[in-house]
Amino acid sequence: SLTTDDDLRQKFGINLQDYIQGALPVNFTYIETGGKAKIDIKGDVTPTTLVIDSFDYLKRPQIGGNMSLKAHLTNDVLTEITDLSIATQGLNFADGRLLFTSNADLKRGNFSAITLGKTNVSLDFEITPQGLLKAIAKGTRVDISPFILSDKNVADNAVSDVNEENYPMQISVEANTVFVDEKKPFEDTKVYLELDKQSDLTRIEMDANAGGEPMYIRFRPEEETGERTFILKADNAAAVLDILGIYSHVRGGQLTITGRPRRGDERGDLFGVARMTDFRAVQVPVLAKLLAAMS
Length: 295
Prior knowledge:
Elements: E1 2-4, H1 6-11, E2 20-21, E3 24-33, E4 36-44, E5 49-52, E6 57-59, E7 65-74, E8 77-88, E9 91-100, E10 106-116, E11 119-127, E12 133-143, H2 145-148, E13 169-179, E14 186-195, E15 201-210, E16 213-221, E17 228-234, H3 237-243, E18 250-261, E19 270-281, H4 285-294
Parallel strand pairs: 12-13
Antiparallel strand pairs: 1-3, 2-5, 3-4, 4-7, 5-6, 7-8, 8-9, 9-10, 10-11, 11-12, 13-14, 14-15, 15-16, 16-17, 17-18, 18-19
């Protein structure tokens, strides 16, 4: 048995400090033949910090868990990890596979089933030579709130330094239910997201059902001007407002929201108009009386 740390893992060519930080007690078997080596590792992640910054996931020390993997090296350089599994609070997966560049930098991976918080999906991803993270997730439940609502990296309070800039990302999601808040989900959802190095959302294309009715969102740059424009249309306004945690005292209705920047600022604040029609207000007697008086 051995307790590894960031420096020791680096010496073994295991370049995962953005994801695994601090002490990690392990039992391992090391076999080397003709310049190729395989390390069979089983570890206790209780004292370890685990970070998946893209999903706002942080496991702090003293939270129990275990992990196992097989690391494959060629001429002392990590080339592949197979049979990767982790079971701890808020994170559970098995049979993961990771591939690495000739510099032992992560370049691709896949997980047949991963549970991360409220998310339960299969996941395939790659990191291009230009440093772009592309991911495809498919499953029963997906929580996209880390990409839409979060303005802070969970790794800010981790034990090791992490670069202020993250990978720019292109993420495709297809799921039975998609959460953007802790309440109700969208259903039968397809989402495409783009985020920049500062984790700012720069593009979203979403088609889903809300309250049994179709809705869509488009937030993307115009081809000619580069201005980010926004449009949301929904055939059940009340369901959309409730799912987003905005308002829950209406029923039915149609909702249209449009917006664009002012003064040609393609990355500035958006200004626009929201229009809701054919809805019914409930549990708001003052508003109901006012609307009745105006009708």
